[in-house]
Every structure is written in C-alpha cells, then in structure tokens.
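Practice problem 4.
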C-alpha cells in the first residue's frame, strides 16, 4: 500500500501516481487492493513557474479493483486539473474510502440524528472516477460497479463518479452499477452527461448538480 508520497500528510497514496504531466499515457494496468487511488494523474503545472503549452493525457484499458481502502475523498481512477484528458475503456470497481472517525462517532452516539446523517451519506467517501478541479475530461466506454449500495453497512460504495469545481467535462456511453448514487459533486458549467447506463442505483443518479449539467 505504500507510504504518504509527495511530502504531504494528505497525499492520496496511489498505486500509480503521476504529477505535473504534460503528454501522458496510462494504459494496460491491472491494480487490485490499493490503499489509495489506483491511478492518480495531475495534468499540468502545480506550483512550477514553467510554461506547459501542450497538455494531453490518455488513461485507457486499465482495471482497478478494491481501491481507496485506507484513504477517503479520492477515486479509483482520478484526474486532476488541465485537459484534454481522455479516460476510456477502463474498469473501476469497489472503491471504498472509509472514514474511521464517522464509524467511531456512530458507535459513541448511536441516537444522534446529525451523526446518523453523516454516517448514512458519508461513512464511505470515494468514487470510481473522480474529476477534481478538472476541465476538458472526456470519459467514455468505461465500467464502474460497486459491491453494495446499502447505507446500513459500514462499508459500501457511494458513487460511480464525481466532479468538483470543474467545467467542460463529458461523460458518455459509460455503465455504472450498484452504487448509492450515480454521479455526484459540485461542478462548474458546461458539463455533459450523455447516453450512460445507471443500474441498481439506490438513491439518485445525479446528485447536487442538477442545475450545472447539460443532459
């Protein structure tokens, strides 16, 4: 599972981590039981003053199963920042993201309604495909599935995908099965969700972003 990389206690602990990518390709990888994300790619510059006039990332034909086993708020396959990034023909399954503090609070205060809400909604916080502050991501022909969508279990699979403060992201012809939610997040504008299959979704297929997407 590795240790905290990049000199940061909040590092994601990915199985494959690429930072400040310019022209990048991740393909043909099989990852099982990763402490953090299976594949984590940060496209473009972080704090570097250098120019990066050409950015292009390809993430395809990978299989990631049982990821984010010891970290939360990450993704099985995760893309950060600059595009275009093409994510296609991948499988990402059973992304967990346990939040130990919530489990402990639930045991300590079993009848507290606020803690009960956080337990049901956020006890596991990870996503098969995570677009974090990303733009111009194109996701197509991907598969995501969870092992359980029952929020009465400590370990469950929250959502197939998430977008956080990104824009001009495109999801089309993907298949998502057995999650609490389909795609979640707090995205920006001009995001497109087209022709996807949502199967055995316990709650909402699209959550917290109905006004920011174009179907």
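Answer key:
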């Amino acid at each position: 599972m590795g240790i905290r990389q990049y000199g940061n206690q909040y590092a994601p602990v990915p199985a494959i981590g690429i930072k400040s990518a310019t022209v990048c390709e991740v393909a043909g990888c099989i990852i099982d039981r990763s402490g953090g994300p299976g594949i984590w790619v940060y496209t473009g510059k972080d704090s570097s003053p250098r120019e990066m006039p050409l950015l292009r990332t390809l993430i395809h034909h990978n299989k990631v199963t049982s990821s984010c086993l010891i970290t939360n708020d990450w993704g099985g396959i995760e893309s950060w920042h600059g595009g275009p990034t093409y994510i296609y023909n991948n499988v990402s399954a059973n992304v967990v993201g346990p939040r130990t503090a919530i489990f402990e609070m639930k045991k300590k205060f079993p009848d507290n309604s606020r803690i009960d809400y956080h337990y049901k909604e956020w006890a596991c916080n990870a996503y098969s495909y995570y677009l974090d502050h990303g733009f111009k991501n194109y996701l197509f022909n991907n598969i995501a599935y969870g092992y359980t969508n029952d929020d009465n279990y400590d370990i469950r699979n929250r959502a197939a995908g998430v977008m956080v403060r990104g824009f001009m992201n495109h999801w089309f012809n993907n298949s998502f099965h057995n999650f609490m939610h389909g795609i979640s997040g707090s995205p920006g504008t001009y995001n497109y969700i087209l022709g996807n299959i949502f199967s055995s979704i316990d709650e909402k297929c699209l959550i917290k972003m109905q006004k920011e997407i174009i179907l």
